Amino acid sequence: PAAGAPVAGPARNRRVAGLRRLVARGLSATVHRRLELMALPLDSLSAPVEPAVPVTYGFLEQGDVEALEALRPGLGAAARDRFAHGARCFAAHAPDGRIVSVRWVARGTARIEFVGCALPLREGEAYLFDVWSDPSVRGLGVASATGARLYRALAAEGVTVVLGAVWPENAAGMCNAARRGFVRIGV
User: Is 128 buried (19+), middle (13-18) or exposed (0-12) by CB count in 10 A?
Assistant: First the structure.
């Protein structure tokens, strides 16, 4: 539109939506934090997908913190703290032994660092957090395959539902959760 002319229609809607996202991001970085609580029932798991590259899977132990640090520099202290509070880390390893994808999971009580609270979990519930894949394997199905194997391992331990939280302004995260079968159950 010409300078000074009112903006209308789709252009105005995009501008307003962009402004809302900007305000939400600013608030979440300062005083107002919220997450969408999502749930994935494990009663009807589909067949695990096969990634385009060879990987092996398994739970990590406290002794694997250096390998986690290689995947995500700066994670060492947080990883030690998570292990000390009972969280577990499920990983995919490349043939050379490198960790290329991880998912953290908590049982009993989930510490949700982003909002600074603890979420008590019921029997049969697990909380999934801090999902990360090395950029070199993104788009190759490694993340999906790692998640599928983790859900099967948790189901074998008696977990019936996996909970997770996604920042509502993270459009990619919300889309990914929905694509994996998670449904919104609260804020």
Answer: buried
